[in-house]
Structures are given as C-alpha cells and as structure tokens.
Amino acid sequence: MPPLSQEAFHAALDALRAALSFGAPADAVLSRFFRENPKLGSQNRAFIAESVFGVMRQKFVLDRICEADASPRRLLLAFLARSGRNLREFEPIVSREDERVFLAGVKAFKLDTLTLAERAELPEWVAQELLASGMAEENLLALGRALAQAAPLDLRVNTQKMKRESVQAELQALGYESSPTPYSPFGLRVVGKPAINRHTLFTEGAIEVQDEGSQLLGLLVGPKRGEMVADFCAGAGGKTLLLGMLMASTGRLYAFDVSEKRLANLKPRLARSGLSNVQPQLINSENDSRIKRLAGKLDRVLVDAPCSGMGTLRRNPDLKFRQSAAGVDELNQKQAAILASAARLVKVGGRLVYATCSILPRENQGIVEAFLAANPGFSLVPAATILAEQRVELDTGDYLQLQPQTHGCDGFFAAVMQRKA
Ligand SMILES: C[S@@+](CC[C@H](N)C(=O)[O-])C[C@H]1O[C@@H](n2cnc3c(N)ncnc32)[C@H](O)[C@@H]1O
Questions:
Q1: Where are the transmembrane segments (predicted)?
Q2: Is 0.80 topped by the overall pTM?
Q3: 409 catalytic residue (yes or no)
Q4: What ipTM is given for this predicted complex?
Q5: Ligand 1 site, residue 232, Cβ cutoff 6 A
Q6: What CATH topology corresponds to 153-209?
Q7: CA distance 155 to 208
C-alpha cells in the first residue's frame, strides 16, 4: 500500500463527494473526475478509484461506525483505517486530536452491534426480500460479503479469431497471468487489472471483457450456424458478440434495443469482432412494428432484461444506494412486458431465454413463473440440461442461478423456455 499523502487524500475526497451525490453511476463520476484532473499520476488515480469504490462497498458498516458524523471525510478515514493501515500512517493527513480518537475508535469497532443487512452490506429491503424468499441468514451474509468484493477481470476469447490457449500464451508474454475460467470454455480470468484495451489482442477483436456469468448465458441460448436469432435487449452488445461468435458469423442475429447510445457503443465492438451476421436495430419500444414482422420466425430469442443490477454490486456498488424496492416494482412491469413481446418472435420448437444480472427473486423466478402461467405454449427446460449439452458441468437446478461466493462470477439468473405450440 503506498503511503498516504495530502494530495491523494484530498483528491479522493473530492471524487468521493461527487460520487456520494448519486446523481450518476460512480464509474461515470470517476471517469469525469479523471478527465477534469488530467495531471493525476497513475498511483493516485488507483488510490482514488479504490477509495471511492471501497467506501461504496462498505458504506453500510462505515455509516454505522461514523454514526452522527458520516461526512465524506469521516467515511474515507474510516475506510482507510479498516483497510489495514496503522494509525501512524495517517500522520500526513490527520492532525486534529478528535480525528485521532475517531480513527482509534474505527479500529476497535465491533461488527456484532450491526443488523444482519448491515453486516451483509446490503440494503435492508434487499435483505428482507432474500430472507422472505427462504434464503438462510448465513447464505445472505456470504452472498452480501462476496458482492462487496472487487470483481476479477474476465475475458472472453473470440474463438473466431484465436484459440483460448494462444490468447493465454500471448497474455503471459505480455506479463499478465491468467487462467481458464472454471465453466466457460472461452473465458480467461486475469490476475490483477491490466489496462487490456490498449493491446492488439483487444483492438483486433481477439478478446472482449466479459464476466464468466454472461458467457454462460450465451451458452444457454446456444445458437447454431445459420439460425435466426434475436438479442432483444442488446445494449452495447456484450452478449450479441458472443452469440454471433457461437453462430460462426452465419445466419442472422438481430440486436434490438431502445437506447440509441448503447447501440452506438456496439458498432466499434462489432467492427473489432469481425462478425458480419449482426443487424443492430433501434426500436421505440418492445412493441415496435419492426418486431412484429418477425413474429414466429426466430430460432432463439434472448431477453437480457433491464433489471436492478443487484448481482453486479462487485462492479457497481453504488447501485445499493441508487435502486429501491419501488424502482424494482417499475422494472417488474417492464420485464414482464418485454418478455411477453419478445416471446412472440420465437417459432414453434424455438428457444426463449430470460436473463437478468439480479439476485432478487421477483425480477427472476417471479417474472418467469407468471409468464409460463399465462403462456402454456412455452415450457421450462432445465438450465443444467442445456449446459450439459454444451459440455459445461454446472447444475444449479431448473434455473441458472449464479452467485459470486459459489461461482466466482457476478450474480446472474436465467431461465430457458421452449415453444411447444
Ligand atoms: C441488461 S441491459 C443489456 C446488456 C447487454 N445485453 C449486454 O450483454 O451488454 C438491458 C438493456 O435493455 C434495454 N431496454 C430497456 N427497455 C427495453 C425495451 N422495451 N425493449 C428492448 N430493450 C430495452 C436497455 O436499453 C439496456 O440496454
């Protein structure tokens, strides 16, 4: 750990103040902060990013430690004191006696005075929803604590361009250690956080940054060469690119989204990937007339639904403070409407996959069960069966349910459904 300096501490405090207004996602706030402060060195930038994300990750506990004065300065001091620094290291930034006493108190703070939700670093409403769904307290704690860790860097190898072993060897030659991901046949987990996007492996489309969980969702869709496929909520195309690769750049892959900006971000990625089977299509809603003309024609449809993102807290810890139970109510309406509309595209015998990066049952099983009850023409296919067909040994039951403490990836949910009639 580099020594604490006035300059780095005050810069981190400025960035933290901006992030704690929760006007924008923390990563966007940080990018802007770094753009506005171009003279910051790489060590200081790393310290600032770790401080802002660290405070967000531990904020429920830090709030309790700070109690009456949970100011950004106190939160940051408490975070740094809990990160294994001894009190002498604070001399360059702390001169007041009351702050010295505060820091000593942070070190002595006992977690057993906290509620279960606070110890799990989850909002109370999230903890209550998980407990009400039958999750045991110790599992809630393990889940919350795993979500409060930083995520590793996972890459997906574009096997249209290179083999996984060759990419691993090239990374090794660049000085980056990596290992094959436990489940995905085209994933690599990299040690540390190298700025991979400067290397030709990235610029020439041999790799994409993608959590292993997302890679498994693509395998559940399992598109084949020559098929007609839709990625209904394609966004910037993380899963579109994977599906296109699985289709070996044949057939047709529609990438729908209502966000022009996100689809625009897909374009350069598409160019790097070398895929020629992808058709990005901006739609005005899930009921856009351009969708209706594809009714009953598609072999596979993925609905990677807009969701609370509660499974991605390792990357977006500020979502804990930017989402709410009422917000999830609204998302539920959208999720159900998108799934119902997307389902109309699936042909008889075709496959529909509903997925989220949420751990909340009402965004997951809740939506799928209601859909199946209203649409008897669809039936659930066990996710484990599909994964076994793809030679992935992972059985989480009928649904794919991934959690960081068990699977090492973000929290994901997916249900595979087949259209019978
Ligand atoms: C979870 S994100 C998709 C992430 C993307 N599949 C990926 O792998 O990078 C959900 C997406 O749904 C889009 N969306 C929201 N409402 C929609 C609608 N009514 N129809 C289609 N897409 C929608 C959002 O713009 C967002 O890009």
A1: none
A2: yes
A3: no
A4: 0.99
A5: yes
A6: Alpha-Beta Plaits (3.30.70)
A7: 6
